[in-house]
């Protein structure tokens, strides 16, 4: 992962003061022990990195045992920075001594920058260019972030100012990385339909200090899929979905077999796991974050639909998202493949309403109005994410307790990442920053007399 940044191992693992050389008989007795025993002793946890550096300089046998890619330095790295181990594959070749040196250097750089923030911005907000030093750092960003997390996790009320700026820097770093990933994701062709991946980017951007990953969320969904398969096996032990391997994108064409999958899904999601639409706390941003939907087992129509859609597609049912006004839906095709279809050839699924299957007329009853056929059409990933972020914008405008307007700021960033030419939103963002006294250089010449740019946006969910 990391390149050699420091010339010598002794720059990071300096030898302590010279000590008397061990007696020849004692050293001979030690090095004659089996390698596994020596390795066990050196990995026991009682020796520091400095100790390992001194041990490795005593003789050839111990130097070979303490080579950079061996278990001894891996254990030193693991004990010192356990949270980083998840970023390494067991099959990768890693020079752990070099990793140790680079991580140590990144930690020193991180503390130096946090200390400089404390001195420079103690009485003012961090300006736009205040983060320029961070953007020019050498070495893996994950090491720098890890040190910031270590600062945040310091016990008690120590170094509160350091923690304050470490949090700001970590927030900025992660959001910049997530925003870049989202922009790259949005460049995918229209037929790239990873709705869950896009939703996770939104979740991560609004919760940059939380440990949220697509891999973890997909693992939780996979566990739900396993429960559905168990139920499906009781319905039809020879169902083709039971033979699907992880990551397969096969689709089942027979309507009856698709219906069996949906029946099993509804039983697991709503009866067994007790997922439900959040009617009691509908206007809560947590309802839009996929990791929270899985934890709390509740959400609003769009987030519940994305969960339902993801599970159905993994099991071979080709559901599609429908950007229905006021209530996001899924559609399930009932017509023959290759024929001309209209809106009446679909059943519409309300994941918010426990997977209820609706006709066109029942969809109109659901929202209390007649709508045109165009609103029953399928939408692509970008439109789905636009609606999710639009919901967050609406919720951000409702903020009353959090005077930092963090949700509004985050949702504006996300919306402008997808649609950078939205002039009204750019003006709103400038006025918001000016109002908060944050990054006034972003405010530019925004006209203050204009009406609020988002007042006309519908509160669609």
Short description:
The chain has helices spanning 24-31, 35-42, 49-55, 60-65, 71-80, 96-120, 132-135, 141-152, 160-186, 195-206, 214-235, 255-272, 290-296, 301-314, 360-367, 381-398, 406-418, 423-436, and strands at 276-277, 298-299, 320-322, 329-333, 346-350, 356-358. The protein is mostly helical.
Could you outline the blueprint of secondary structure elements for this entry?
Layout: H1 24-31, H2 35-42, H3 49-55, H4 60-65, H5 71-80, H6 96-120, H7 132-135, H8 141-152, H9 160-186, H10 195-206, H11 214-235, H12 255-272, E1 276-277, H13 290-296, E2 298-299, H14 301-314, E3 320-322, E4 329-333, E5 346-350, E6 356-358, H15 360-367, H16 381-398, H17 406-418, H18 423-436
Parallel strand pairs: 1-2
Antiparallel strand pairs: 3-4, 4-5, 5-6
Protein name: F-box protein 21
Domain F-box: 31-77
InterPro entries: F-box-like_dom_sf (IPR036047), F-box_dom (IPR001810), SirB1_N (IPR032698)
Spans of at least 5 consecutive residues whose pLDDT stays below 50 are 2-24, 440-460
**Shape verdict:** globular
Helix/strand-derived category reads mainly alpha
- Proportion of helical residues: 40-55%
- Describe the strand arrangement of the main beta sheet, using strand numbers: 3-4-5-6
Encode the helix/strand succession as letters: HHHHHHHHHHHHEHEHEEEEHHHH
Average pLDDT taken over every residue: 84
Q: Roughly what fraction of the amino acids lie in strands?
A: under 5%
Count of alpha/pi helices: 18
| Major sheet size, sense and barrel closure | 4 strands, antiparallel
What radius of gyration results from the CA coordinates? 28 Å
Separation of termini? 42 Å
Beta strands, count: 6
């Amino acid at each position: 992962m990391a390149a050699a940044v420091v010339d010598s191992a002794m720059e990071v693992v300096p030898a302590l003061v010279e000590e008397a050389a061990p007696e020849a008989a004692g050293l001979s007795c030690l090095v004659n022990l089996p390698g596994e025993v020596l390795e066990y002793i050196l990995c026991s946890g009682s020796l520091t990195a400095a100790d390992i550096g001194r041990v490795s300089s005593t003789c050839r046998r111990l130097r070979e045992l303490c080579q950079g890619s061996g278990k001894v330095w891996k254990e030193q790295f693991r004990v010192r920075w356990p949270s980083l181990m998840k970023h390494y594959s067991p099959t990768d070749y890693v020079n752990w001594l070099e990793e140790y040196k680079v991580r140590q250097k990144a930690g020193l750089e991180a503390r130096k920058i946090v200390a400089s923030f404390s001195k420079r911005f103690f009485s003012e907000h961090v300006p736009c260019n205040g983060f320029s030093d961070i953007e020019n750092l050498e070495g893996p960003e994950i090491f720098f972030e890890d040190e910031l997390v270590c600062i945040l996790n310091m016990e008690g009320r120590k170094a509160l100012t350091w923690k304050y700026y470490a949090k700001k820097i970590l927030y900025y770093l992660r959001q910049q990385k997530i925003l870049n990933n989202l922009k790259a994701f949005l460049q995918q062709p229209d037929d790239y339909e990873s709705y869950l991946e896009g939703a996770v980017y939104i979740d991560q951007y609004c919760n940059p200090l939380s440990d949220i990953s697509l891999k973890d969320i997909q693992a939780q969904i996979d566990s739900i899929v396993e429960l559905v398969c168990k139920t499906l096996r009781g319905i039809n032990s020879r169902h083709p979905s039971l033979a699907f391997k992880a990551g397969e994108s096969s689709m089942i064409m027979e309507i009856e077999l698709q219906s069996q999958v949906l029946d099993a899904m509804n039983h697991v999601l709503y009866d067994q796991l007790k997922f439900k639409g959040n009617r009691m706390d509908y206007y809560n941003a947590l309802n839009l974050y996929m990791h929270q939907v899985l934890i709390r087992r509740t959400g609003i129509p769009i987030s519940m639909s994305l969960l339902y859609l993801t599970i159905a597609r993994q099991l071979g049912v080709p559901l599609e998202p429908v950007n229905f006004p006021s209530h996001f839906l899924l559609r399930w095709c009932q017509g023959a493949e290759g024929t001309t279809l209209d809106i009446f050839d679909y059943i519409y699924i309300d994941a918010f309403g426990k997977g209820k299957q609706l006709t066109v007329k029942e969809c109109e009853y659901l929202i209390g109005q007649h709508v045109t056929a165009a609103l029953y059409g399928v939408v692509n990933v970008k439109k789905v994410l636009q609606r999710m972020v639009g919901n967050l914008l609406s919720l951000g405008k409702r903020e009353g307790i959090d005077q930092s307007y963090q949700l509004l700021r985050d949702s504006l960033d996300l919306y402008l990442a997808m649609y950078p030419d939205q002039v009204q939103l750019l003006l709103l963002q400038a006025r918001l920053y000016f109002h908060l006294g944050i990054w006034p250089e972003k405010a530019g010449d925004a006209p203050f007399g204009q009406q609020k740019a988002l007042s006309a946006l519908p509160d669609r969910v």
